[in-house]
Amino acid sequence: MMTHRILPFVMMATLSVPFVASAEPDKPPAHADAHNEAAHKSAHHFTDHWAKTLSDDQKARVDMMHLKLDRELVVLKAQEELVQKEVNALAARDNADTSAINTKIDELAGIKKQIMRARYAHILEMRAILTPAQRISYDMGILERSGVK
Fold it and tell me: 54-144: what fold?
């Protein structure tokens, strides 16, 4: 009987501990260290950002390349989204067919492969129009990514 009266207080104390621990005013949030590391890495770039140094001809070519890439990716991303929904629908069925799901997964992987190939072909195309000095900051940006946008 006594435990029933204490239980709500114990639950409240347990739930409030994470909030109290995270509310320490002198300690920065956990993600601040990762952000500061990223800011520190980029602080050592002494060359101008490649986009700031483009000539008018390069700007026009970059815009045209981005338009071409966007035209290709808009269709592929729509296909990717549709096939992902089809995989989800197959998986949510009673007596789901593993073979059908695997076939759709293979189709989805093929679309993702096309997207990656288009993006990396674009990177190579971009590098081809940049000067060696511009490639420095462009390449640094590529190497800092976890993947292609």
Answer: Four Helix Bundle (Hemerythrin (Met), subunit A) (1.20.120)
